[in-house]
Specification:
Growth Hormone, Chain: A, single chain, mainly alpha, disordered C terminus, 438 residues
């Protein structure tokens, strides 16, 4: 795992980055679960149940709106001052804001100030997460040897989804509490635990070193003073590819893991605990199979597999909602496994390396962060859009599935454009090593 000179090997770096990523996404995902199950009752109690749910999902979307700014800020820090420094800051911020949500008084105690506080804390969460994924991906992929970047890069998304598994498992256990206790204090426990595990993540990241390639660029003064400016000027096409590619999977994932929790319990009368359990099983399978697809992409190439995965997710989302409408737990789990455990695993196993290989090292953190976080805005609004649709037509899941499928197909098309730049921007020394700094 480690090299003879004492620096950590690629597997150790991948595990360290992914474990920290797991903890950070745990914090972020439990917010989505709480928004689906309790926030409409506790922070928007003056509204009707349907409108309260829309308002709760709107606060979820706030985190996604702010994520591109986080990608720019922490991508800049990662490119200019090092990936590790950026990752320390993002994880620390996430832990503090998650703890803040866990102790935040509700609408019954402080009135409308509760909703305002929730929005502010959610915005800071989004800022932190916006800078996490791009820096973690570049750190891991840059440490990986040629021919193994797909495998090692896949650990990042595997860690993210294991974070969701932990969060939803805790919520599933707590949901067994009587409603009064769950709404009074049970929902707070996952948020309070978040600050403790964030501390563990900071400890684990202490041994991670900066990638040699990027460290040399910084020491030579060859990193642009404003990396995002160079990205916009010279790599905007690749950013667009990354954005469109990410939009479909993000949207489909949040439809299944967040919106479906609320929709399944209210419209099809599936129990809260059962919905959480079904989503947890599907996401656990997704996380466990991701590294295998990353490794396969190292052998077979990334583009063809990515396209197959995106088209699969686009088709399976119709199957998922059709099976959700039956109210049958086994059929719902089958639908979730197809869309996430199969189609989603292919895409998420390959995407980290694909994103990183689109950009040169001197601006990679900024570019990868910006592309994915712009797509996160699309995904973040997905539960809000879906809630608005079912508010008008409670059985209108076909429109929701079509919305997801269109984004997935657009992502598959975007992959073909990314492949056109493949040989020119495969991970290598930036051309800026032969030029003056921007």
């Amino acid at each position: 795992m480690g090299k003879r000179d004492g620096t950590p090997g690629p597997l150790r770096v991948a595990l360290s980055a992914s474990i920290g990523n797991l903890l950070e996404w745990y914090d972020f995902f439990i917010y989505g679960t709480a928004a689906a199950l309790v926030f409409n009752k506790l922070f928007f109690s003056g509204l009707s149940p349907a409108v309260g749910t829309v308002a709760a999902f709107a606060t979820l979307a706030v985190g996604y709106v702010i994520r591109p700014l986080g990608g720019i800020v922490f991508g800049h820090i990662g490119d200019r001052y090092g990936r590790k420094k950026a990752l320390y800051l993002t994880l620390g911020l996430m832990g503090l804001t998650t703890f803040g949500i866990g102790i935040l008084p509700t609408n019954a105690v402080i009135g409308q100030s509760a909703a305002v506080g929730l929005v502010v804390l959610r915005a800071v969460q989004g800022l932190a997460l916006g800078g996490e994924m791009g820096n973690a991906q570049t750190l891991t992929v840059e440490h990986a040897p040629p021919g193994r970047r797909g495998f090692y890069g896949s650990f990042l998304h595997a860690g993210s989804f294991f974070g969701l598994v932990i969060g939803t498992t805790i919520f599933a256990i707590l949901s067994l509490l009587p409603d009064e206790q769950f709404l009074s204090w049970g929902w707070r426990l996952p948020f309070l635990i978040g600050v403790l595990i964030a501390g563990v993540g900071l400890f684990l990241r202490r041994a991670v070193t900066e990638p040699e390639q990027h460290a040399k660029l910084r020491e030579a003064g060859l990193v642009p003073k404003l990396p995002v400016v160079k990205v916009i000027r010279h790599h905007y096409k690749e950013v667009l590819v990354a954005t469109v590619l990410s939009g479909g999977p993000n949207t489909i994932f949040y439809m299944v893991s967040v919106f479906a929790l609320s929709y399944g319990t209210t419209q099809f009368h599936v129990s809260r605990t059962m919905m959480l359990t079904l989503v947890t099983i599907a996401v656990a399978l997704l996380a466990a199979t991701i590294p295998g697809w990353g490794a396969l992409s190292d052998r077979l190439g990334r583009s063809g597999l990515l396209i197959a995965g995106l088209l699969g997710m686009s088709a399976f989302i119709f199957v998922f909602f059709a099976l959700l409408a039956t109210g049958n737990s086994w059929l719902i789990m089958l639908g979730a496994v197809l869309v996430l455990g199969l189609g989603g695993a292919v895409v998420n196993g390959i995407a980290p390396a694909f994103y990183c290989e689109l950009f040169p090292a001197d601006v990679r953190s900024s570019a990868v962060s910006l592309g994915q976080q712009l797509a996160g805005v699309v995904g973040g609004f997905a539960p809000l859009v879906a809630s608005a649709i079912v508010t008008r037509d409670a059985t209108g899941w076909g429109w929701i599935a079509a919305y997801c499928a269109v984004l997935g197909v657009l992502g598959a098309i975007a992959v073909t454009f990314g492949r056109n730049h493949w040989d020119d921007v495969r991970i290598q020394e930036s051309k800026s090593t032969e030029q003056e700094p921007v």
